[in-house]
Amino acid sequence: MTHEDWRTIRHRLRSPVLCFVALLLLLGVNVLLGVYAPFRWRNIWMIEAGIAVAMVLIVLVFSMELVREPPVIRLFAGVGFYWLVILFSLTLLDYLTR
Amino acid sequence: MSPSDTALRDPLTPRPTLGRPDDYLHSEHTLRSWLLTHDHKRIGILYLLSITFFFIIGAIAAGLVRLSLIVPNGMIFSNDTYNRLFSIHGIVMVWFFLIPSIPNTFGNFLLPIMIGAKEVAFPRLNLLSWYIFMVASLFTLADVVIGGVDTGWTFYAPFSTTFSSAWVVPALIGVIVVGFSSILTGLNFVVTVHTMRAPGMTWFRMPIFVWTMYATSLIFLLATPVLTITMLLLLMERGFHIGVFNPAIGGDPVLFQHMFWFYSHPAVYIMVLPGMGVISEVVPAFAQRRLFGYRFVAYASIALATVTFLVWGHHMFVNGMSEYASIAFSIMSFVVAVPSAVKVYNWTATMYKGAIKLRTPMIFAMGYVGLFVVGGITGLYLATLGVDEHVHDTYFVVAHFHYIMVGGTSIAFLAGLHYWWPKFTGRMYPEPWGVVAALFIFIGFNATFFPQFILGYLGMPRRYHEYPPEFQILNVLSSVGATILGAGYLFPMIYLVWSLRFGDPAPANPWDAKGLEWTIASPPPEHNFARVPQVDFEPYDYSEREQRT
Amino acid sequence: MNLSQYPLLLWPPAASAIAQETDWLILAWTALALLLVAPVFVGMTWFAFHFRAGRNVHRGVREGRNHLLEVGWMVIPFVLTLIFFAWGARVFDEDWHPPAGATEIHAIGRQWMWKFQHPGGQSEINDLHVPLGQPIVISEISQDVIHSLYIPAMRIQMETLPDRYTRLWFKADRPGVYRMFCSEYCGTDHSKMDGELYVMKPADYEAWLAHAGTADSLAAEGKVLFSSYGCAGCHLPGATVRAPSLAGVYGNPVPMADGGTIVADDSYIRDKILDPDARKVAGYKQIMPSFKGQIPEDRLVPLIAYIKSLGAPNAEPNGEPTP
Amino acid sequence: MSGAAVPVGIEVAEHFQDANQQRHAAVFGMWLWLATELLLFSGLFLVAIVVRVMYPDAVTAVALHLKFWIGATNTAVLICSSLTMSAAIELSRLGWRRGMLACMLATASLGTLFLALKGYEYWRDYVEHMTPFFGFRPYVLSGDRATQLLVDDYFIITGLHGLHLTTGVSVLLGLAWIARRPSFLRHHQHRVEVFGLYWHFIDLIWISVFPILYLLNR
Q1: In this structure, is residue B18 part of a structural domain?
Q2: Contact between B95 and B124 (Cβ < 8 Å)
Q3: Pair C86, C210 in one domain
Q4: Which residue of C lies nearest to D59 if distances are taken between CA atoms?
Q5: Residues B233, D39: C-beta atoms closer than 8 Å
Q6: Quick one: average pLDDT of B344-369?
Q7: Is there a domain that residue C59 lies in?
Q8: Which of B309, B321, B322 sits opposite A86 (nearest CB)?
Q9: What whole-number distance in Å separates Cα of residue B403 and Cα of residue B397?
Q10: d(CA C226, CA B378)
């Protein structure tokens, strides 16, 4: 391994390592919230869900490199989630108004 | 007219064999060359043979159901036999005929040619898809015929999970597995359309058939997995008592219906959209006119594929869903009618000032438009809450969806089969027989299903083995119609096979139609195009004809 | 009227005002539909003959598009059909909300029969007798699979779900005998799960009730069951175990241990009997055993009817402890 | 550039025009497949959410019986495996075959670790009588029948995820076996990338499963 090799690899692995650190930090926050629940708030699940969404987005955009893909692939990555929203929202429309 | 056309039209000119690659049918003759082929055209033909077989099975079951319903007291078959017959009919027709019918046969054969590609993007996956289809469908067929399944094609919980004593588990496995065939085909088509178009083939130069294939593939991709998981949940519940719908532990069978119809309503558009695609090819070809409002029809295809995911609740208005959800689903169902109406009006307008040739495909196409309109309008009746409360789960529904699926998909399938038969096989079908078959089918179909609208409004529930005597005359009428319809289906099966040997050799473009598939020989050479076509023309460009007359 | 005398029926009898309205709805709908599809049918037929190939007619070159026309035939039919959405939704809404003071009849579906229980304690199998001019609410529940009670003459049906009450209502305005069906496929003898609806003049109905009558009303029958299942041992005032009094519970909000409240309706009381652990009531220790599998559906109906009949007592307002 | 690097590229199949088109098609196809996988799992998530709406108490009771710490550890394990997978992809682009192989094997090991922990968790569930579907074994939460709904859903979700992960590990090992040949990266470099998408996606599913089952309901 030459010096230049190390520089290449540091450069290439910067983004994966940053993702890794960010994901672990977010997971840590979520675990803390889950275990200690620092304040008794009924709707704490909203924060937890928000953090989970952030983690999913990090994986999608950086780990799966959506940021580098052409628009059409980004579109189809989004379509899957959009359809998930359709399924959830219309089904819950029934359950929440029964 | 291209030089190859002249060569083929003159019967005295020997088939050119040298300097030109063999066509896809004659390049190799071994069974192995068919079963291991990666050629999208051969895979299309394999599908064509398979779904014809399943159509025959489903049609026989339908015939026996109609036979049973001639008498009101159900003395021809036992109640369990009757329930199994309509379940066979539903399962086989929906999953093994209607859903793969046009996409997997015509789609496979034509989609790459229409966009000027040599192949689909993933040829091996395409073959795998056929094998998955065959294994799953034969497995399911063996189950429903030998073991018998009495749940209907809808598998409503908790009947299917707890109370039915039939062989439900193998049928569920079959339906789960066959879904992967749909998914792989859809995936292949979407990637093919996005990445394999010939130079110059922009999105708005694609024929409508390609647009509808694309829209259908989107539904394949986005709806089928939800069916897979729903059926898997049923399977776990029935097979291993790991249940989430079981009311005995507080589960909600209505949730099953939500998940089931999230797939099964869009599945209707898997059946309808390809039919619309076929008609959008046939009508301009036989009217020799540009398709009226091409862009609107193209957008309507994508709109249908999207909006169809928002309306599944109209199957559940009286199934214990909340009132607000029902109203929301009702109004969204009205929205779906808009893109469908666009297409119907556009086809009609296309014929205006055309030079119309009433050949078999065109007769089928006109029959299609008529029947589809009836099916569509009655669909709106059913989306109307006050009406659905009365006719839900009656023969009105049965008639409605047969107008869509038989009047729509099957007749469009026949229209396309006749239209592209010369391209597939290199032979012409006998024209007079085609016209006779089309008339038989049109008359037989209406005689079968129109009385069922009345029966439904009178209140005869569907899936009834015995019924009150005042419904008998209409039921007999319907069964007589089914006989005519059955005879109508027999004709093409006979004369199309006959034409393989005795039909006239087909020129490259027997209809003077536009589109890349008509620029290559019939049947097409193995790699479709000798060189990659440069597309510099609009779709349905019949302006030459229009200027001539 | 006896339907089976008709060799060929083309329009079903309508026995309620809503049924007649539904008929008008579908007729008007059909009129609009014909208006919308006539251009397609007439146009196609006429074009097919007039513009057939080889015929010398003026064709000319025409644009392949006309935006105004296309947007027009998209929007105008849509707006017209919305009238029927609104009308249909109105009928549906009316069918969803029974009027106050309707007589409640309980229907229990099971493979493959219906059991109806009248408020007076009379019960019948498959057939149902109802008085003319009186709104009838049918509260349905299934013991096994999903069924659906369908009365074509009232143009109405509602699914009968296991483990949950659903309801439909109608007000018959023409005496006669009408058909009832199970319209949701429910197995082997699905098609035999039908019966007849007898709409009778009020006097005849009273006579029928007296003839078919049992000794006790549903609530009275429920009171006996209340004791025999041991409910009274805990829930009556003065019992040794501290259980909530049931007086006046029905129809009122009940505070839950997790902070919310639930209005005590039929489904809630049924759930509490069968599955008392599910959502705990505030202020009480949950010690009640589950009666799942011990009380059949047709006995739950009188029990609930009894609990419903318990008015608010003077001593304990609402029967709820103040938290 | 290092001497360890081998040439990297894509062998163009007959029906494609160039390597770019082929790579794009492969990545596109994988994304579509992942969209279907997402909708596959969405049905199970939907069940979990509906059960939570219907029976909030029962859901909390179940969540307290799930092995929260194993779930959390497993999330961390998968996040680590995502890192090694990303590293394998980057090294494959550089043509550093040995490093890539090492990263692939590390990824497979982390996946196996996940499966082992999951198996241990199932065993704990069994010991703690959290298996209502075994008729021969009393169920610890039998007082509240609705709890079974979430427990059943939990087993189906984790089972299906485990199945995906098992497939992932097997394919990864197979890929590593093929990739040991020096010519692999010259012809099929894109396969590593396409497989990487699948691996990250399994990770993504678990990142959603963990809060939906273990965390939000507590």
Answers
A1: no
A2: no
A3: yes
A4: C278
A5: no
A6: 92
A7: no
A8: B309
A9: 10
A10: 51
